[in-house]
Amino acid sequence: MKLATFTHAGSTRVGVVEGEELIDLAAAAPELPHEMCALLEAGPEALARVERAVAAARTRIPTDDLHLEAPILRPPKILAVGLNYADHIAESGMETPKHPTIFNKQSTSVTGPYDPVHLPRASGALDYEGELGLVIGRRCRHVRRERAAEVVAGYLVVNDVSVRDWQFHTPTLTMGKSFDTHCPLGPWIMTADEVGDPHALSLRTWVNGELRQESNTKELIFDSFAIIEYLSTAFTLEPGDVISTGTPAGVGISRKPPQLLIAGDVIRIELEHIGQIENPVIPEPEESARI
Prior knowledge:
Mean pLDDT: 96
Number of domains: 2
Shape: globular
CATH class of the largest domain: Alpha Beta
Radius of gyration: 18 Å
Helix content: 10-25%
CATH topology of the largest domain: Fumarylacetoacetate hydrolase, domain 2
Strand content: 25-35%
Number of helices: 8
Structural class: alpha+beta
Largest sheet: 12 strands, mixed
Low-confidence stretches: none
């Protein structure tokens, strides 16, 4: 299933996308939660109810008549992995890490799959990073790698947008990874049963129609399940947590000469069996200034 969060007729709620239509779960299964984290937390029985509701649904909304939001509007945690493809390590001039290189993106960085990304007033060093993201479906701790697939609700596309100069203000990377709008997610959560092997998916990123990144998730150094094992050793993972698994070679800062993003650029990221997101770059709006 393609689990989506959408806005229609002035209300934001969850649904399931099938082709060019969406089944509104508020109408098809009103007893279920209308927010994605709550729906995931309700567990396998709730998702089975979703499947039955979709099969029986008579009323559908054309996707052209609604706005797809980030599937999870405010993830409890956004955990990302740096230096997780050998070719990206090589272009960065870094050493291969012995353990996953983990950093946080703040939940306020999330934006929708087709919404604008802001070129910040504070910097012009804006860059893209196409990545496979996974969504945790159940509360878990100390998950062994061989059972990690059991805690994954599904997968989505992530653009780990990065402000390169701010990224290196501190060793944590968090400041340069967490600007508002710098975590486009979507276009939906493709449930794990529909994806198959998450470590055999082609990944491509285009900027203005030019192919910049082309790889496959089989090239991950630490795969999704190893990352879950590592993270859950330290802390509890919760339904709706997003883990972004890292980017391959081809980022703008490492091109010769560097090709960083400017206003007017459009970034499109595609993951096999999951879908694509596409975000235009615009100047940070004046109304974003707050005291």
